[in-house]
Structure formats: C-alpha cells, structure tokens
Amino acid sequence: MLLSDPVEQLNGVGPKRKAALASLGIDFVRDLLFHMPMRYEDRRSATPVERLVADKTAIVRGTLEDVNRRKAHGRQNLWITTAEVRDATGSVGIVWFGGWANDMTAHEGRRIVLCGAPALKERVLEFASPAYKILPDDPGEALLPDAEWNRIVPIYPTTEGLPRKWLARIIYECATSPTLRVEETLPEPLLAKRNLLSLHDALCGIHNPASRQEILEGRKSLVYREFFALQKALWEARVRRAAPGAPSLVAGNRAQKLFLRSLGFDFTPSQKDALHEISEDLDRKTPMSRLLQGDVGSGKTVVALAAAAKALGAGYQVAILAPTTVLSSQLQAGCERYLAPLGFTCLEITGGMKPSDRKNLLARVGQSEALVLTGTHALLEESVVFGKLGLAIIDEQHRFGVTQRSLLRGKNERAHALMMSATPIPRTLCLALYGDVESSLIKEKPLGRKSVATRIVDVRRIDEVYRYMRKEISSGGRCYWICPLIGDEDEGVLSRAKDMARHLRGVDIAALHGGMPAGEKKNVMARFAAGEAQVVVSTTVVEVGVDVPEASVIVVESASNFGLSQLHQLRGRVGRGDRRGVCLLLDEVQKNGVGERLAILEKCDDGFAIAEADLQLRGAGELTGLRQHGEAGFRVANFAKDTHLLEWAKEDITWLRERNKR
Ligand code: ADP
Ligand code: MG
C-alpha cells in the first residue's frame, strides 16, 4: 500500500464505496489520513460493574452469562437477545434487538468487552445494543489495542454506504502501518522553533493517540500548517500586487460628483467616510484591495456604485460580481438607474444568453469603451476578456472562495478591487482570510430606518402566524417565508406554499426554489416587487441584497437550522421602506437551547456583535472534535480558539524570509 494509491485498490472498496469515499473528499490512501475524527471515546480502561452510572458511557470487561434468545411478544420477526456480563464486582444486563445478527448463545461463557451508556430499566442498569467484542481466551492478547478497543478510539464522520466501523478500521491500518510515511511539508527550522510534531507524527497522533496530550499536540501541528499555508499564499499575492501599475482614476472625480448629486439623498457620515477612503485608494497607482463592510441596508451598494462612477468617468471598465442571479439582476437594475443616466453603458452577462447576444456583448467588453459588466459566475468564464478593466467589485464576497476571487483578479492583475460584505467578518477572521486588505466600515443605517422587531414563535402557533400575515397583507404589506434547506429543497418550498394557500385564500403566493431556471426566478421576484404576489416562499435565495421596500414581514421556518448571522441577514430584507419590519423565527422552542440561542436576535441588532456571538457559540460546541466545517475550507483550524497559532504563522513567514536572506 502506498499513500498515492487510489482507494479502490484497498480491500473491500467497490464502486459504491469508492463513490461514498469520494463524497467525503477521499480519493487516495493519503486522503484517509486527512479525514478528521469528530470525537473520541476513551476505551482504554474498563469500569467495574458496581461503579456504572446511568446514561454515562463506559467500557465493561467480563464474562458473558445467561444468554437468552426469544421472539418479541406480538412481533413475529423481531428477535430479542438478553444476557448478563459479570466481572469481579457484579453483573449487568444487556439486550440486543434483531437476534439473527447477534447470535450470542454461541459465545456464552466467553470473555467480552463492550462499550455503551447503560440505561435505568425498572431500577436496574441495562445496556441496549452496545458495541462489543468477544475476546480471545488468552488474557494478554485480549488487552492488545486494535481499531476499536483498548485505546482512545477516534469516531469519524461518515456517509451513506460507508460503514463507520469499516472506515475506522482502514484509517487505523493506515495510521499504524510501518511502511506508510507522510512527507514533511514545513521547513525544518520552523518545526524546531515552534516545537511542532512532524506531519507524520501529528497525523498518527490524531488517528492513534497514546494520550489526550498527543491529540492536542497533533491538532496544534495541523492547525498551524493550515494557517501557515494561507499566510504564505497571502504574502505571495501581496508581493505580486505591490508593484505599481494600477490606473489612477483621478480623472473620474467629476463623474462621481454628478453621480452623488443625482441620487436624491445624502450619504450618511460613514458612507461618506467609506467613499473617501475608497476614492483615495483609486487615485493611487497601486491596486486597491479593500473590504467594505456594513450591515444589510446600510447602503454599501450605492457607495460601490459611486466608486464605479469614478472608474467609468476616468475611462475604465468596471466588473461587478454577484453570488446569485437574483442579486445580479438587482445590481444591474441599480446600474441602469444611477449610472446609465450619466451616459455609461451597463451590461449584464447571464448563463442563459443567446449565443449571438453573448458574442456581441463579449466583443464590446473586449474593446476599450468605458462600461459596467454585471454577472454571477458567468462573468468569471475564460471567454470573458476585458479590454480596459479598472475596477472589480465583488458583492457579498464571503460567498465566493479563494479560487473565484483569484479568477476575477486574473481578468486584470492590476485592477483595483472592492469587496463588499454584509456578513460581518470578525477582525481575526478577516486578517486570516484576506491578509492585508484595507477595510472600511459603514456603521449606521440611513436615517429613519428602525430595527426589525424579532420574535421567537413556537411552531405550534403557526395558525396565528398566518393570521398575522393576512392582516399585514390586507394593509399593503408583503411577506417573505423562508424554508430551511433540509431534505428535498423544492419539495419543502412547494408544500409550504400549498399549505399556506389553504390558509390565506385570495392572497397571491409565489414560490421560489433552487430547481427553477434563472429567468423564472427573476420573474417571481419581479412579481413580488411589483406587488402582484404578496408572499414569496423560498429557501435562502433571498438572503442577499434583495431590495423590496414594501416587504415588512419575514418568517423563518426551523430557524435553529440557520446561523445567527444568517438570520440577521435575512431579517435585513424587511423594513427597508416606511413600514416597520417584523421577523418571526419559527421553531420547536422547547427543544434544547433553541430559545436561548435565538433570543440573542430578539435583543441585539448589531450585526458585528451577533457574528462574534455566533463564532463563539460554534467554537465552544466543538471542543472535543477536530473537524471544523465551513470557514473558508479549513479542516481543523477554528478561528475562535486558534488565534495565537494564526499569529505564529504570520510572524514565521517574516522570520523565515529574514533567515533565508542571511
Ligand atoms: P446594502 O447593500 O448595504 O444592503 P443598499 O445599498 O442596497 O444597502 O441600500 C439599501 C437601500 O437604502 C437602497 O434602497 C438604497 O437606495 C437606500 N439608501 C442607501 N443609502 C441611503 C442614504 N444615505 N439615505 C437614504 N437611503 C439610502
Ligand atoms: Mg447590498
């Protein structure tokens, strides 16, 4: 077996398992070693029977006695096997269901080890279907560690078609194989300086730890590596960009003034500050790299359009990248409204364009005419070539990965870049993900905008929610209804819309779901904006940017499935006009902790505070496992608790360079 072997060369891997492994990102033997446990069970020492506690996981080692197999009462096909395990301190009951798979009668009298949490049944403790192993008669051999017993056992996340036990066993075999050695990726002096485990030892420590300490050491070494790789890439990007060569856009100041005058409202103080900072950057000959942050509705888009006006006025092209088609067409509408009257061409590129239209559009963009091109991923395709790109704007940039950002950059390395985000990015995370980007912050909302009244409502009161919606609609309001992304998305949206139609007769309800063609989605939103439909039922496609001033109510179903920041974003969709916005969070409020977590939203309206709380909550929940989901492709690193390792990695990039100079 080699680290570079494809997994299908392993015993027991057919096409089905190969596909299941691939869905976890495991294609080669090497990838198995990077599959991180979600938690551990300490199965080293057994608990004496007399010390067992109800509902607390424990290992018991003893002799199997009194095995009894019978059919369940009234259930023809269900076998039940009961038995006792006895050690020097007493005995405890076990029950297994589905007896054909566990014919324990053959093992009566043998030594057994089992792991589980015993439950209190009629005042005595009993294990139900525990993990177990029949032990060899030689007591010395019985205590040797294997994939599942007599060690600290990692528990891995798995997926359908991939038995957890099997996966654990092959990872164990890889981690303990004397012939497999993972090559080191960090420079030797760094390992010594920070006293880090080698990559090989770190991985072995994680999959086959001799102690808790070894898990922590292994984890630390991996987290550091993730941060180091990121910092290195950021540093290289910075070097590439530091050379001058970007266009100075000073010549566009007049166009920007005209733009501001045409708006019909004054910028808030922080909008002014932000635009000032951006404008200064655009005057320079080093490419701008700036993040514009501000809560939903704080007016980022108009600030970005003001920057676009400056670029256009100086004779350069502007690209605007949006994460969804709905948002792309909204931005396009904004361009048409504010930039086109100043005489600038505003184009949108979409996935479903007629080939001839597309050809014409690309031909125009390839020339040096000053124009704006808005689009989603369609904008990033290789065939889109700008003749004179001066400014790239990325809306809701956290929706894009590193690859897409660099694709846009690749359109012109020297263009200025402005990124916008309504999901506040805590400072530590921001530094890690974007390195030295400058950041501008819009603190306040345009005058007169009130915060969105937020209430947690038990799902059992859904009828009252419907009644409230009817009242709101009859006085001219409009509602969003957000379904969670679980199971079949389209199904969920459609069945909710149906149910609602029964309760809200006479109301026009539109459904918006992932399976619809882009054109149809646009249509639905247009109908909602025009008031032809008064309710949109959808998944989170309306999360970003959508601007319908009459929308006043947003209901989020199964709210606890969403992150707090995401919910905060969602509620920013309402209360953008004269009506006070209302957000109703539906869930089973009695469920563990749901109420407390969501209550943060009832009390707090500061997107940044909410983002920090979210990060802390998620960070705290994962203390035992190594796996971490979501943040920018990190497998192990957790920003809430690994800040110091991030600092190390940053210092060490410089340290290494200084050292190499000598
Ligand atoms: P964001 O992109 O930050 O969510 P938008 O730029 O879409 O916010 O602004 C939300 C709404 O507020 C838009 O309708 C916009 O025209 C309006 N708006 C923006 N700035 C101001 C302002 N200073 N005064 C009044 N209305 C504003
Ligand atoms: Mg916006």
Spatial arrangement of strands, main beta sheet: 6-7-4-3-2-5-8
Task: Note the gap between the termini.
Answer: 42 Å
Gyration radius (Cα, Å) is 30 Å
Main beta-sheet annotation: 7 strands, mixed
Helical stretch count? 21
Class by alpha and beta content = alpha/beta
Each distinct ligand: adenosine-5'-diphosphate, magnesium ion
- The stretches of 5 or more residues where confidence is low (pLDDT under 50) are 619-632
Q: What oligomeric assembly is this protein in?
A: single chain
Estimate the global geometry from the Cα principal axes: globular
Measured by DSSP, the beta-strand proportion falls in 15-25%
Taking all residues together, what is the mean pLDDT? 85
Strand segment count = 22
Residue share in helix: 25-40%
